[in-house]
Amino acid sequence: MLDISEIFLSLQGEGWRQGIPAIFIRFYGCNLQCRFCDTPIAFIKKRSMDEESILKKVKTISAGRIKNIIITGGEPYLQNFTALVRNLKQNGFSIAVETNGTIWRKIPIDWICVSPKKEAKEISPTGYDNRFKKIANEFRYIITKKQDFAFIDKTITRPVILQPINNDIKIALIISDEIKKHGMPNWFLRFQMHKLMGIL
């Protein structure tokens, strides 16, 4: 059984794979309490579902067309969802996960986005379990002010998405200046497209 907040169809609004259609499976709960968290539903709405029930709902939403699954939260790695991933893959789905990176589990994911948070610095100096550095496909940092750049792990070689808090243009301009100043070839400015569009 897994604790789920919601399952829905939308477009990936953030990060490297922005714009792809996907079925989101939002897990309940998180081990961090970030002041800028924009998914309070992950702390409010909870229902326990077994893997077969989740697969059935996903198949209904997919209607044979949508094959991308994004497991998000909250923090998905609080729960062991290995069986769910295997079940979904056996049914032809491609699985991505969005995690804060503080909890390590070896789960066969196709695409991993790690979004380190300063609230996790007591767990790790970089805010994430270092084992993710070798397997994550992208890292995503929420930028709230110029001082946040000191927290970014500059040794990451994968794409690093820099996302201005609440799509704030002033913060975006700061990000733009930092990218131009430091010439980091793997740093990318991205807005939250789904919020600009007014969709989930």
The percentage helix is 10-25%
Task: Work out the number of β strands.
Answer: 9
CATH H-level homologous superfamily name of the domain at 2-140: Aldolase class I
Instruction: Using the alpha-carbon principal axes, give the shape.
Output: globular
Low-confidence stretches: none
Give a verbal description of the structure.
The protein has 200 residues and is α/β, with parallel strands linked by helices. The protein has a domain at 2-140: Aldolase class I (TIM Barrel, Alpha-Beta Barrel). Helices cover 24% and strands 24% of the residues. It is built from six helices and nine strands. The chain has a nine-stranded mixed beta sheet with strand order 3-1-2-4-5-6-7-8-9. Helix 2 crosses helix 3 (82-90). The protein starts with a strand and ends with a helix. The relative contact order is 0.16. The mean pLDDT is 95.
Question: How would you summarize what this structure contains?
Answer:
The protein is an alpha/beta fold. 24% of the residues lie in helices and 24% in strands.
Topology (SSEs and partners):
Layout: E1 2-11, E2 21-27, H1 41-44, E3 47-49, H2 51-62, E4 68-72, H3 82-90, E5 94-99, E6 111-114, H4 132-135, E7 138-143, E8 160-164, H5 169-182, E9 187-189, H6 193-197
Characteristic key phrases:
single chain; 200 residues; alpha/beta; TIM Barrel; 6 helices; 24% helix; 24% strand
